[in-house]
Amino acid sequence: MREITSLCALLTIVAPYAPAQTRCPEMLKYQAPGVALMITKAAPTPAAAPGTLRVSPNFPGTVPVPVPAFCRVDGVINQRKGADGKPYGIGFALALPDQWNGRFLFQGGGGLNGSVALPLGSQAAGETPALARGYAVVTTDSGHQGSVFDGSFFRDQQASLDFYYAAIGRVAQLAKEMIASYYGRAAEHSYFAGCSTGGREAMIMSQRYPEYFDGIVSGDPAIRTEYSNLALGFMTAVFDEAAPKDDSGKPDPRKTFSDSDRKLIVNSVLQACDAKDGLKDGMIFNSRACDFDPATLVCSGSKTDSCLNRAQADALKKAFSGPKSARGDAIYPGVPYDAGIADAAGIPGLLRGPVLPVPTGADFMHFDPDREVARTEADKTAQLGDSTWTNLSSFAGHGGKLLFFHGLSDPWFSPLDTLGYYEKMAKDTGDGSVASSVASWSRIYFVPGMGHCQGGSATLDRFDMLSAVVDWVEKGVAPDRVVATGPAFPGRSRPLCPYPQHAEYIGHGDTNDASSFACQQ
Fold first, then answer.
1. Could you confirm whether 516 is annotated as catalytic?
2. Exactly one of 214, 240, 343, 410 is catalytic; which is it?
3. Is 115 assigned a catalytic role?
4. Which of the residue ranges 33-42, 238-247, 412-421 would you say has the lowest mean pLDDT?
């Protein structure tokens, strides 16, 4: 790779760049030694004014800032016919901006992938995606085509391996080589950012490809989906027990709580925990100090809108505590009481009735946690995708920086599971102290009120983790706080503080301004 970089630097001196409009179509001829590669498209893409570039054909949002002209290169690695007779191959798209800033970003995927997203780099980048900043950005379908939760590709061994970890490693290497070829020099720094499946992929990069990236951002990671799905199945079963039954005796967990019940629960959580960060503002930053107990809402007489019946209160406490074995051992962490647990927009909050992102096959009417654990542990294939390896000594050793963030109202993956990984990583990679060795190269932030990756009626879900990790890598400036804003609270800003700190009001100053809050232990 060093020889390639030196050769590219020499070519830069003796052969000035041709105009981008000329260079881009030439990428159709690009070949990589030892790689079965087909470039299917290499087309100049004109600059886009704010609000005109669609993020995705299936997503209504547009990019709110100008996006400069870029060359888009699409291709497929290892086209083949699978064991099931279907066509496979690792599809990718690489955006090469005309005004390149010398950086490379790998944009993580979502769900079970299956499509090549626009290489934009908007995850945890605030209002300005990486491409708009001049980054070269790559995306991939991770080796198969299909809808976001179409798991039929798992019947093919190679497609499964590609999805779990192989595709992202191959695309990262190829993208770096293509960037060096196109610009005549290698990227100065490389970054990865993703959420959900992309968050899992970010962790895989730090664990299996420790020297590929200088900085990594992992959001709401799907660390071990077989266990998170088990936990959702458990919650469904618990809410079934307290739910009203139809004429056939079948329960509906979405009716366990009425709208007035949900409002009562959220208001009671806020009443118990909101002010523990120094200010009652509809957001719970000191989540660790939250001591809400559903038992305090049990009716003393008949059921009314101002109380819960005993079955509802018991179900709420049991469900949020997480599944446990017959011996009482925790199988998967519980979830925090937070202001967004009853949200209806986007992915419904947990009080709306658990929504499984991927079917587990569990029998919710006769749910047995121990039986489900045995079934889960027998599925060794699914464990290939777990991102649980905690020895990151090589990643940290080469100067890599790793940021995590997780919404406290995430209805799919418990933020406490991500915290559990982080704390174990501190023990296995460093000296066991989050405040010392691990904090010198990794931080984790919890976002009050935020659902899965974004959104929420009581959250500030716009924050720039990309700039935070870049400043840490390139300037040595540790992200002691990352300022967040969001449409749920117009005009308000708050600092996101690295665990175990939280944002605390200092007692004076504008309560809508992040400068009036300190990160407190």
1. no
2. 410
3. no
4. 238-247
